[in-house]
Amino acid sequence: MIRRYTRRRTPLLAGPAETPISDLNTTPLIDVMLVLLIMFIVTIPLATHGIKMDLPTGPGGVEPETHRLDLDRTGRLAFDGVPVAPAALAPRLRAMLADNRDNVLHFRTDGDARYEDFDRTLAIVKGAGVERIGFLGNEAFVAALER
Questions:
Q1: What is the per-residue pLDDT across 14-25, written as a single tens digit (0 to 9) for each?
Q2: Residue 59 within any structural domain of the chain
Q3: Could you tell me the CA-to-CA distances from 13 to 8, 22, 25 in Å, in that order?
Q4: DSSP 132-143
Q5: Which residue range(s) make up the domain with 105?
Q6: For residue 115, is it within any domain?
């Protein structure tokens, strides 16, 4: 007589019967904390970023004057159309600011002027304390670059 042997089926996970897990599931808590951390990292720099500006206080006061400084291709300077030596430029600029600190200087440079002359003149302007300056004629530099 031939005997057949059959295997017994055993459960895949051996252990006690299904009991509730009493540990706290921390995965959702960690997910929420990471989302909040990312939100703070993104929003805090935007809230603390600021730009210092001198805003007008209201109507009235002295209207600022606009003065013009020209630098030609040979390095000669002209302040409000009058030729001026580089050594005499700083006292003129200080006198301009003595009337009103809000006066504006428009600086126009020829496109063929040397950069050293421009840099020296700009150093004189900044050394005199001029804070409100505008640059005119920038299209001349574009034309000089295209040659």
A1: 556 677 777 788
A2: no
A3: 15, 19, 22
A4: -EEEE-THHHHH
A5: 72-146
A6: yes
Dihedral sign (CA 83, 87, 91, 93) = positive
Confirm if 124 and 90 have CB atoms less than 8 A apart. Answer: yes
Query: Edge-to-edge, what's the strand order for the sheet holding 82-84?
Result: 82-84, 77-79, 66-71, 104-109, 133-136
Selection from 147, 143, 67, 146 nearest residue 110 by Cα: 143
- State both tokens at 2: 């031939």
103 vs 1: CA distance, rounded Å: 120
73-93 average pLDDT score: 92
If you search the block for the tokens 């900044």, which residue do you land on?
A: 126
pTM of the model: 0.55
Instruction: Decide if 60 is inside a domain.
Output: no
Domain count, the chain: 1
